[in-house]
Write a structure and sequence with these properties.
Elements lengths: L8 H30 L11 H9 L2 H21 L4 H46 L6 E2 L2 E8 L10 E8 L2 E9 L3 H21 L3 H15 L6 E10 L2 E7 L5 E4 L2 E4 L12 H4 L5 E5 L5 E5 L1 H4 L11 H8 L4 H16 L7 E7 L26
Antiparallel strand pairs: 1-2, 2-11, 3-4, 4-5, 5-6, 6-9, 7-8, 7-10, 10-11
């Protein structure tokens, strides 16, 4: 599974400690210089309490203690230099001791919460890798690439799902979005992926795979829960099967055009089939050398910028399509983050499947397509 490169928590912790130490040094030096050149007697003494307080924002209890000692030493020096009464000196040191102890306790509690959060993030990472397993660069006759970003950055896991497997019935894949957030959504996503991976190997018909998922969800979903999903399969050379259950239409890239694969007959999301009485439809599309199929979740198309404008995925795909799916989804993901200002407010998943041209390895890669089209539906 492809991920945007990011610095780990240790990196940011080190940067915070360095920045905090530099700030403390500047404050201490500033107070000392102000006292040295201002000629005032005790004007700057109350500000010494800010030194351990600021140390608590970046360092641990030891850092706070050291800052308190430095501030206390500076306070004693200032009081002795100006012949401050012993009562004032005692009050200054008492205030610094109280502030240092309080800030040290706060820092210790913060460090404890950081360790708990690090453990939670580690568990979430393991759960994500178990649920959303990395997709190889080649699966059967296809090139493939995936990009996933969870909106809950601290947990790094969300309700979007995907899977891509090679089976006796051809390559099969699914991309979906569970309604809701948190652990219930993650549990439902795990259920869908597990049932899909099992049924994809057992069921020759893609509609039966979807029916297996529907039956399993009917036993486990709440009354207001559902899962939108698109399942696809490649049972025979040149043919691609698509089953859309209330999900955003995939985008087919063919001959420098981007074509939304609209379902011929809209079907309800998974989990709502029993209520509506409708069953999903199977679309069969031509899928030949050079064709590409992009499946995604609504976190991509519903991402807005500061002007409340949606991200134009079709146009973005037309700009960035190339012969390497990894490069395409990486460029799309980067453009998406730039569009929203660097922070997604919903989970977003992109999965790109490409049927390579047999002779393309011996010739230069073609230029990325520039124009896009739109059709109501595609059929063989």
């Amino acid at each position: 599974m492809s991920r945007a490169p990011e610095h780990g928590p240790d990196h940011w912790h080190r940067r915070g400690v360095i920045a905090g130490a530099a700030l403390l040094a500047l404050i201490v030096c500033g107070l000392a210089l102000a006292d040295l050149f201002s000629g005032s007697r005790t004007t700057w003494i109350p500000l010494l309490a800010t030194v351990p307080a600021l140390a608590a924002t970046a360092g641990g209890p030891r850092t706070v203690l050291c800052a308190g000692v430095v501030a206390g030493g500076l306070g004693v020096g200032v009081c002795l230099r100006h012949d401050v009464p012993d009562r004032t000196l005692g009050m200054t040191l008492a205030a610094l001791v109280v502030v240092t102890l309080a800030c040290g306790l706060t820092s210790a509690l913060r460090r404890r919460r950081e360790r708990v959060l690090a453990a939670v993030r580690s568990v979430a990472e393991a759960a994500q890798h178990a649920l959303l397993q990395p997709v190889p660069s080649t699966v059967g006759p296809f090139q493939a690439a995936v990009r996933y970003s969870a909106a809950a950055a601290e947990a790094r896991i969300g309700g979007d799902l995907y899977a891509l497997v090679s089976t006796p019935h051809g390559v099969r894949l699914i991309v979906g979005d569970v309604r809701g957030k948190g652990l219930p959504a993650v549990s439902m996503a795990a259920l869908v992926v597990g049932v899909f991976q099992e049924a994809a190997h057992d069921e020759p018909d893609l509609l039966d795979v979807v029916a297996r998922i529907e039956r399993s969800l009917a036993r486990n979903l709440g009354p207001d829960d559902f899962v939108t999903a698109v399942a696809a399969g490649y049972p025979r050379p040149g043919e691609l099967e698509v089953v859309n259950c209330g999900h955003a239409p995939p985008l087919l890239v063919r001959d420098s055009a981007v074509l939304p694969v609209e379902p011929e007959r809209p079907a309800p999301p998974l989990g709502l089939g029993a209520l509506s009485g409708e069953t999903p439809d199977l679309q069969v599309l031509p899928f030949t050398d050079g064709d590409q199929l992009l499946l995604y979740t609504d976190g991509v198309t519903e991402a807005r910028n500061h002007d409340r404008e949606f991200y134009p995925l079709t146009e973005g795909l037309a700009r960035h399509t190339c012969d390497e799916p990894v490069e395409t989804v990486t460029a799309l993901h980067g453009e998406l983050l730039h569009h929203v200002g660097g922070h997604l407010h919903d989970d977003a998943a992109l999965m790109l499947l490409r049927k390579p041209v047999p002779a393309e390895q011996t010739r230069p890669a073609p230029a990325a397509p520039r124009d896009a089209g739109r059709v109501g539906s595609l059929s063989a």
